[in-house]
């Protein structure tokens, strides 16, 4: 008769395969993640329900940030004077008589800044002016 207690086996949990799987998942998610390209000019566009695309190979992009600073094709205009803005727009337009213009103004832009861009475009004879907006979430019906 064997009265001595049995020697208990020590339970050992090997977590090495678990760590390998976690690292593989981490690498998979790092490789498959896409990054959104951020604009250098930070603006928050107003919202609208319609979306119209401009079908032209050349588009003049005029941006106004929340402080009222102007950018023509992502190049900052020196000051906020109408004549300076007109010169910058004419320089970008080159020999084009009426290029389509997309005006991207921050939702908190002063109203006068937007009117100044419209006035500059009008004085130069540019009549194809579009406003950039973001889409509003459609209401459930």
Topology:
Blueprint: H1 16-32, E1 47-48, E2 60-64, E3 70-72, E4 75-76, H2 82-93, E5 101-105, H3 111-123, E6 129-131, E7 134-135
Parallel strand pairs: 1-7, 2-5, 5-6
Antiparallel strand pairs: 2-3, 3-4
Helix content: 25-40%
CATH topology of the domain at 47-135: Nucleotidyltransferase, domain 5
Distance between the termini: 83 Å
So, CATH architecture of the domain at 47-135?
2-Layer Sandwich
The number of distinct β-strands equals: 7
Mean pLDDT: 81
Going by helix content, strand content and strand pairing, the class is: alpha/beta
CATH class of the domain at 47-135: Alpha Beta
Q: What share of residues are in beta strands?
A: 15-25%
Shape: rod-shaped
Q: Give the low-pLDDT segments.
A: none
Structure notes:
The chain is α/β, with parallel strands linked by helices and about 140 residues long. It has a domain at about 45-135: Nucleotidyltransferase, domain 5. It contains three helices and seven strands; from the N terminus they run αββββαβαββ. The chain has helices at about 15-30, 80-95, 110-125; strands spanning about 45-50, 60-65, 70, 75, 100-105, 130, 135. Strands 4-3-2-5-6 form a five-stranded mixed sheet, with helices on one face. The chain has a two-stranded parallel ribbon with strand order 1-7. β3 (about 70) and β4 (about 75) form a beta hairpin. α2 packs across α3. It is rod-shaped and about 110 Å long.
């Amino acid at each position: 008769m064997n009265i001595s207690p049995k020697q208990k086996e020590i339970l050992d949990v090997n977590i090495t395969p678990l760590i390998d799987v976690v690292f593989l998942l981490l690498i998979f998610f790092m490789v498959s993640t896409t990054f959104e390209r951020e604009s250098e000019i930070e603006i928050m566009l107003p919202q609208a329900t319609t979306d119209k695309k401009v079908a032209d190979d050349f588009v003049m992009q005029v941006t106004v940030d929340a402080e009222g600073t102007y950018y023509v094709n992502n190049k900052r205009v020196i000051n906020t004077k109408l004549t300076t803005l007109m010169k910058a727009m004419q320089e970008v337009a080159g020999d084009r008589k009426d290029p389509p213009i997309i005006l991207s103004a921050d939702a908190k832009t002063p109203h006068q800044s937007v009117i100044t861009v419209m006035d500059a475009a009008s004085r130069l004879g540019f009549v194809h002016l579009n406003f950039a907006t973001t889409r509003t979430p459609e209401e459930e019906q």
